[in-house]
Amino acid sequence: MSYYEFLLFGHLLFVAVWVGTDVCLQIFALRARGAGPERMVQFTADVEWLGLRLLTPASLLVAVFGVLLVIDSEVFEFSQFWVTAGLVAFLASAITGSAFLGPETGRISKLGAERGPQDPEVQARISRVFLVSRIELIILIFLIFDMVVKPGFP
Length: 154
Known about the structure:
α3 packs antiparallel against α4. The protein has one domain (3-149). It has helices at residues 3-35, 37-72, 81-115, 120-149. The chain is mostly helical. 87% of the residues lie in helices and 0% in strands.
């Protein structure tokens, strides 16, 4: 295995973990919503746990391996549109996750324990979190498309 193949393997492995986890979370969110407000509050605690222990490390490793791939390559450059677009999409997702989704899921689980899962504010905040997370998933899918198609790359 060459160094490039190692970097590409690591990059793709952690893309699969990151995006696959996000897709599964959306499916589990629908199941939790169907089970009722109490399960949705419990689910937000699960999302916070996974975010800290799986999503954040996987997303960081995607970025590290991706940057190393560009550095190692003789044809890829940071000035190419597809690389810049990928980095911007990664930053948007990272900021959304660390500044809003992670902290908000933690706040929701605490608020749900204080006020009860039926509380209208708790449910409204849960809905907002999952709307934002769906938008983030669309960004991640765009990111995969960008990496495969490489718009602007000769």
